[in-house]
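Subject line: Sequence and fold of a protein, written as structure tokens
Enclosed: The protein record, placed directly beneath this head.
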Amino acid sequence: MQVVARNDVFSQARYRNRLLDALRQPDAELLAGASERVTLERGQVLFEPGDDVGVVHFPCGPTIAALIVTMENGAVVETATIGREGAVGGIVSQGNLPAFARGVVQVAGPAIRIDATRLQELKARSVAMRNLFARYADCLLAQILQSVACNALHPMEGRCARWLLALQDRIGGEDLPVTQQTLADLLGVQRTYLSRVLASLQRRGLVRSNRGVIRIHSRDELEKASCECYAAVRSHYDAVLSGIYPTAPLATGTGGPAAPGVLP
């Protein structure tokens, strides 16, 4: 994992994490002095269940992390996808707390890293920062709750379409660097089942899967194939943190314009 000098953190990260870009300049400067820019690798585990979460990561640009729950029999399922709209770690907790899920990097890329205790000290100095991060925690909880309902009630094709749309929102571009095995694991199904679902979407001209990449051919039609959960989560983000959730796919590797401020 590569680390960049702290005084270069925000000059290189602007327009790359929408949650940080929503901060006013004085608060951004507070975080800049206590943060460092790192490069996360695909498959890198940020924390395991039971670990003290002592570090908070803010994914930047195309970087994607996921919160994954593992059962006693080894089965896994993804409960939240986190990209440039958010953070991974105890963003609203008071000090270090044990993790409940595994935090793992799904798409490699840059991130801003800050010590959780240091972040708590900075939040104590800024009401606006505390409010922003508390609002984000509400949005993350909404995503997790919607994921629980989705996993229990919706057919696999709709769930798969929802996940692909959410991934494209955060990465941008048509090509999603995810294997069928990884997608099957995140959705909690066998790869053979997932392959049949992707084949159905492919026959309809929505996607194409090839050599570790899934390409989205028709965004509009994929949204129609998705279950209601995709729109529900986006709507909640817009209501609670307007401008934070990516509103349209962007070219891979670009951060796009800064998110508008979300606090008075």
